[in-house]
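hey all, quick one before standup. I had two proteins in the batch that finished overnight and I want to keep them in one place so we stop losing track of which output belongs to which input. First protein below, input sequence then structure tokens straight from the run.
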Amino acid sequence: MFGFQELKPKITITPASVECPVKACKNTVERQRRSFKREERFFCQDHRIYISPSTFEYDQETENLLWMNKADLSLFRAIKTVKRESRIARDNSEDALSWNVFRYLETENLLSKLLSSITGIEQQQTKLIYWSFSQDHQGSWPELNSARQEFGEELKRSSEPDLVAVTDKDIFFIEAKFTASNNTTPSDKNNCRKYLTGGTEWHKQVFTQDFNTIAVIGKKYELFRFWLLGSWLANQCQKDFYLLNLVLAEREKNIEKQFSPYIKPAVNRQFKRVTWEDIKDHIINNAPEGEEKSKILAYFTNKTMGYDHSGSLQKAFAFK
């Protein structure tokens, strides 16, 4: 895995070519434009990566994963049977980041304590669902499928939280962001599916504004869907609901102020901003010492988020 220590601080980008970002590599490839492509003309044979001006992609997904023992790989392959799309091989993939961090939290039994610190309520018996894959059911989580169907979503083109954590008390939808923003709009602004009629017009109980105001004008379509489906699902399960927006410390600083006016306040439903840097601090303060802890902390320190328009390498996280 290539990170800040292994990558050039600046790369040369011309109208026709891009140099390999790995230190000491003299290879250049044809410059990619528009969508990222895995083609031979963009491939560095020495380092087995596909290159664009802003990022790169490993030849194999496993090269971007920290945890690869037998149980990890078995779970990862099972997840891919239900996950709709995957860019896990991409250096700036939020999916790879989510897997590397949350798989560690899960295997080290740190999730319940993390969620307890976020909510101020002791959370126990935490089960983690990756991209709708339930380890208990070895397939899509049935409760999520019920919510999707209730609000008129096709299962093959449905809302897919990055992570869902189910505890003895609460249900958490975790929407993880890395390089992308929370500004999203529907591809078909006139197709509300059953968002306005599903759950006996559930949207009236959880939103203060209409679909067009929130999803189209406000550009919070993704958060709208997760709040709608998640709050209804939690209500069906008789649990409280949290929608956690996991972002970089230097980004989306006002997301709570932006989204909260759209949702009706309730003691059993909360929207919270959490940062990746918060999670690193949680690991520092709570994880047992050992090889795995050293590995995940080194990952945080060395993680990059691609190159900017001038060809300068960007560190992912803002640590003191």
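OK second protein, same deal, sequence then tokens:
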Amino acid sequence: MWTRCAPNGMVYLTALMPLSQGIGVYAALKREADTTADGRPRGQVMTDTLYERVTARPADTPSPVALNLVLADTTLFGEDDAPGWVDGYGPVPAVVVRDLVSDAVADEDAKATLRRLYRHPSSGQLMQMESKARLFPKGLAAFIGLRDQTCRTPYCNAPIRHHDHATPARDGGKTSGLNGLGGCEACNYAKEAPGWQVVTTDTGGRHTATYRTPTGATYHSTAPPLPGPTRRHSAIEARLSIMLAHHRAA
């Protein structure tokens, strides 16, 4: 099951299941739409019914989920209209971002928490963190997901499903932000085939993954910058910003 970004603040929810089950789900939703006459369009009735049966909550009641929303402080305070980023969804217009934040803060039943993310002063990318664990812990996995946003394999851009080592742990690869990559399931399995090689580097705050295929072709993938404008800094200011970010994140 996976999601894809859709226009107008919507999302495509896709599920792969046995034929009989898939037809059964659709038939049940269609039957509910056929017997409901409350003024809602058929598609909305089917969508609301799906939501209610999966979450066991009315469609007009928020579901308790964690939503990772990334935005620049300048966007939050209305100084610019740079879009935000919702983890697992994609870019969101600034006006929608501010509405989401204000609604979460105003809702007494919602729990809004703030986590500061430090961008590299030159590239705007999320800065590195490291762990000694073999598996990617939740914090580091979240870091990689927010940094990479979509599958890092060139020309893929599918939602991230796996957080994997560029250099495999069996070959001495570290469990770190530098060696970690977000990838979709298909690409992650594909690069385990003989002849594939992935090497990551961080130059000037730009996390780059170089993919070498079994045919010898080479492709490069650079992590996107975080939302918000990238400000100009002197070399000294840039170094101080990096040192301060590492100190605060420690």
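Flagging for whoever picks this up: Residues 118-250 form one domain. The CA atoms of residues 82 and 228 lie 5 Å apart.
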